[in-house]
Amino acid sequence: MPSRRLVALALAGLGLLASTGTATAQSVNRDLIEGLEFQLLYVALPLSLFVLTVLLYATVRFYDNDDPQPTPEDPALEITWTAATAIILVFVGLAGYSVLVSPYVSPSQPADLAGGEEGGVESVEDLPETDDEVVHVRGYQWGWEVTYPDANVTTSDEIVLPADEDVTFWLTTDDVMHSLFVSDLGVKQDAYPGEYTRARTHVYETGAYDARCTEFCGAGHSRMEATVVVVPQEEYDAWLEENADSENASAPGV
What we know:
Immunoglobulin-like, 24% strand, 5-stranded mixed sheet, 5 helices, elongated, alpha+beta, 2 domains, 10 strands, 37% helix, single chain
């Protein structure tokens, strides 16, 4: 019975790996994160199966042993599993580092771009220039105000982005700490009162994506949600032009 369960578990894991490995990521961020997850899964799954197999063998082989003996010393085996563990840890470290240093996962923050000023950037006028499409996101209890500085357009709880373009979010808050999280796009960045933090993305797929605050911020935290609407560049430009100087624009239809 235990062996059947082990086989079933292995087949289920392999089936899950095969079914999810073909999913298409919607953004560069998500692509990087999923790539790391699958690299680690390809290592973790066979290791888990190996450990479970050894455990099952030991359970069956030495069950109800009336004369147990200590395991004899085997320096070669000890060196082998120590070296194998070290190699696995180095692989995991390098794989994780290659993702963490990506500018989409760990973008340069305002103070870094402005020359390393301590305390961060507190004014929107002091934000450094970038080559990305720029969106300002202001969190408050309990909603999001989004401003597009190039056209002086403002939306409420809707973030409109162009597809296939690098986008920078400058985030801040009015009151307490908030955190913008767009799960499908792999975007998550904390926002702090009186300071600006940066998030970056590059979205492949047009459509609507759910965003929410993931930092507990009071009684209305659970309803602090927004919609990220990604449209083609031409439609995005037309929307900005149509809503120039608007303080409460609506996102274009998807």
